[in-house]
Amino acid sequence: MKQHSGGDLKLEKINFRLATREDNQGLLDLAHAVSMSGDIEIVFERNPNFFYACEIQGFSYQVLVATRSDNTICASGVRVLKSAYINGNPMEIGYLGDLKVSSKARKLRILSNGYQKMKKLHQDGQAMLHITAIIDDNKDAKAALVWKNKDQSIPNYYDLGRINTYFVFPFLPRFLLNMPKIVRGNREIIDNIVSFLNAEGMKKQFFPVYTREYFLNLRQFNVSDFYVAYEGDQIVGVVATWDQSSFRQTLLKKYHGSMTWIKRILGSLLPQEGERIKHLYVSFVTVKDNSSRILAALLHYVYADIRKVGYKYFVLGLHEQDALNKALRGVSSIVYKSRLYVAEYKSDDEIRRLLDNRVPYVEVATL
Asked: DSSP secondary-structure letter at 341?
């Protein structure tokens, strides 16, 4: 059979199956080959083991792959099951992510057939609903998945609003008044941290249900990575720094559009094309009464600490409706925008009835 340049799949039968550990290299190759388009063209890599990133996302996962006649993986998608708060109650939900297709040829057909397989997973009854995120600049994904007249095998993508992902440059710690006491986490206070996270987090939609065991066994994470704010003897805020570079990398492939001008202005402050971005995630962001003042104080300490160890940026994600965005006003950052969706085989009205008006919580370190 003649193979066409550019990965033309027109003459091939594509097979779908769940991946196993033996598919690791094929999944890594696909991740490296597929970039996310936009003003910043980036590649999300998963070296040395694709499945490590899946393990931090929830309590179980399934990786669906499409393979060519030679068993080469040409598309993949991940479904993760996790425990999260829905309307203040702990529920099991699904997250759909890491959707990658290696070729433009018959992309819609691959998506259509893949979602026919994924629909069976949707209907296994393990998740109350499924959520997903799509980068705003990813026009191909939006055209294929969000368009109302798309193939009926693809679920309804119900828009829950924008996610602001901040790439923050910690030039100098900010001068703040009325600072709470900030301490680093330790095993003696981990139970108190977990209790605070769940008590405050349940006020937001999709906030994960956390346990002590989760943090003690989390890959490349230590409880000392927590920053804990106290007022009196009460915890009033928690964040943590998390370096995932040993198993999850972000390669900046190319600047486009307005970012080419921003790169010229900021110069070496931004990574070079072809460079893997050295950054930390600021994760598990939880603040009493959603106080931007307390979050600003926590970030003040994060600024100072990460500059000492050579990180150029930290990454923090917040939903556009979250009042905590105020804590990022005036800081030097680039905001990368995406959108959050419920992806279900239900109508808009059915999905609306599932959710109250709580602001969604977004943990970009586990997307």
From this structure: E
Distance (Å, rounded) from C-alpha 28 to C-alpha 69?
19
| Alpha-carbon gap, residue 180 to 187, rounded angstroms | 21
Q: Count of residues for the chain?
A: 367
Predicted confidence at residue 175, as pLDDT, reads 58
Structure tokens, 294? 């307390």
Q: Does the fold of domain 167-247+257-337 match that of domain 15-164?
A: yes
What is the CATH number assigned to the segment(s) 167-247+257-337?
3.40.630.30
What percent of the chain shows pLDDT beyond 70?
92
Report CA torsion sign: 164, 168, 174, 180. Answer: positive
Q: Are 100 and 138 in contact (CB under 8 A)?
A: no
Q: Name the residue type at position 138.
A: N
Cβ-based burial of 142 (10 A; exposed 0-12, middle 13-18, buried ≥19): middle
The verdict on domain 15-164 having CATH code 3.40.630.30 is yes
Residue in this structure with the two tokens 């600024």, named with its chain if needed = 303
Q: Where are the domains of the chain?
A: 15-164, 167-247+257-337
pTM of the model: 0.90
Strands lying side by side in the sheet with 130-135: 15-18, 60-67, 73-86, 89-101, 130-135, 333-344, 156-168, 313-319, 279-287, 234-242, 226-231, 181-184
- Please report the beta strands in 1-88, taking only residues with DSSP state E, as ranges in sequence order: 15-18, 40-45, 60-67, 73-86
What's the distance, CA 231 to chain centroid? 31
Closest to 182 (Cα-Cα) out of 298, 265, 91, 66: 298
Of the two residues 61 and 177, the one the predictor is more confident about is: 61
Contacts of 42 (CB under 8 A, 6+ apart): 35, 36, 250, 251, 252, 253
Supply 198's token pair. Answer: 């769940």
Alpha-carbon gap, residue 366 to 259, rounded angstroms: 26
- At 296, list the tokens: 């600003």
Burial class (CB in 10 A: 0-12, 13-18, 19+), 270: buried
